[in-house]
Amino acid sequence: MTKAVVFGTGSWGTTFAMLLAEAGTQTTLWGRRAEIVESIDLRHENPDYLPGIVLPAALRATTDAAEALDGADFVVLAVPSQSLRGNLAGWAPHIPRDAVLVSLMKGIELGTTKRMSEVISEVAGVPDGRVAVVSGPNLAREIADRQPAAAVVACTDESVAGRLQEACHVPWFRPYTNPDVVGAELGGAVKNVIALAVGVAVGMGFGDNARATLMTRGLAEISRLGAALGGDPHTFAGLAGMGDLVATCTSPLSRNRTFGENLGRGMTLAEVIAATKQTAEGVKSCESVLELARKHDVEMPITEVVVGVVHDGMTPGEAAVLLMSRTPKAERYGV
Question: So which residues are the catalytic ones?
């Protein structure tokens, strides 16, 4: 039987572990907090992140990383992106030699501007063909409620992608394979930044035209950066690009959009952080995304103003004026 371990008992890590278990994969969840691990293991519920959802009885949980990794075919990483490097360094000595490492994370590392798959390869010392990425319009609560959803399983080794596809395929979750890891990861990371901008617009009381404009021009930013880094343009029109962007920018379940809404309503950054229970990846990754764009001479004006509002004291009103007063351009400039 295929065996998997999922590191991270947040909403998406728990939900993906649920998918694996439902698909017949022997699955263990690793968590740092003993009370959540005990609840998952004994009562089949994650009360902090998925209250009311009954988890599969076959799904185990533990705080012992070495025990969880023993014999694992898939090592799934669902921790906050900025904590990946430190956590993985501790787990790496116990990872089985032929295991596939799977990233559920959607961020760019601060300081290095590396994608999560690059961090994984570097820290764990594994080749690209043993690192896979799962991305797409995957709001955890909806999937945990068994509502229909789809995703992209990206890996440079298409046979590995096919194995992971089979391991997490259930009637309400349809994974598609794609060899474009770069495109899948950039779509997932940058859409969080655009969702912050959309949230700010919503909080300011702007309507559907403003939201649609930000999403569309946000997709243009994602595509420009993706092209500069070698991503496949088709990826950005698919589930890991447009699909994920639409879900994250429009759903009240989106952490990043909700974070932006609170900023748009006039809350300070400290107030929003205090009111936010889960990680909004775009808050930190917006800086590393902008740094990555500047390294490759890619213009990303929405990302720039998000960094300004979140980190540099710019007001939402000033951000709106800056975006709307930019020099007129052709729609497909920079592509």
Answer: 191
